[in-house]
Amino acid sequence: MSCYFPxxxxxxxxxxxxxxxxxxxxxxxxxSNFLKKNYGKLKKKDLYFSIYSINNQLWNKxxxxxxxxxxxxxxxxxxxxxxNECILVAVPSINKNxxxxxxxxxxxxxxxxxxxxIAERASFNFKIKDSSTYYQGEYPYKMTTxxxxxxxxxxxxxxxxxxxxxxxxLTMNISKYSVNRKKHLIEIYDPxxxxxxxxxxxxxxxxxxxxxxxxSSIPSSFTNLRAISCNTSIFIPLFLSCKIDNxxxxxxxxxxxxxGSFYWGEKRNAxxxxxxxxxxx
Length: 281
What we know:
Structural class: mainly beta
Helix content: under 10%
Shape: globular
Number of helices: 2
Strand content: 35-45%
Largest sheet: 6 strands, antiparallel
Number of domains: 1
Radius of gyration: 20 Å
Strand order of the largest sheet: 8-5-4-7-1-11
């Protein structure tokens, strides 16, 4: 499955110390995984990454990078654009022929050799001063063709359990169609009482940072968990926690899988139960 690689935003996390999250992605021109017998099929060619952003309801190519076979390159957000609100998407290609402007993102090239399970991935990098963290992931091409969907997860990976730490929910969404800029409502709520703690408005074709409302304790048990859902669109969520205490800075990023991926076989029936009783879809 071919993939896109969106570049996370830069954003201010602490005004008093002027601390910013500085973001980048690192990409690799080599298959993530393949069978040993297919080694001879490797295509030892340069790989190009066209960076697209949306302007005037069109995808515009704003930058292009070349990655030699077997090498990695890092693409820094601040070196591409100073507008941290716009979506930036890296599209892998075997040449420089991607259009300058288009209604649709070009189909990403895949370096996969076979059906080995590990997908093509980039490293999503986050840094504040000397503290850094990263997440390895991708945005599958098939997800960009879905016009409507639903999204659900839980906040078990947030770490803002003291006065110095903040947790941001990073919501990643890509549609291949540039005109898709629909607004969506994400709700954060107690799955037992259905009481909404926080509402976040996001849009299609965006990679947003959303500060989560502080809670009195971390979700160490089911009674503290909060559900997070949207009934009009799909997202890939990241939880970025930042602790800044004088000169001490700690940064962590976590990713949750869809709740249904934790069940298999006969236990897949549990998906219907939590959707019926816990999730507002």
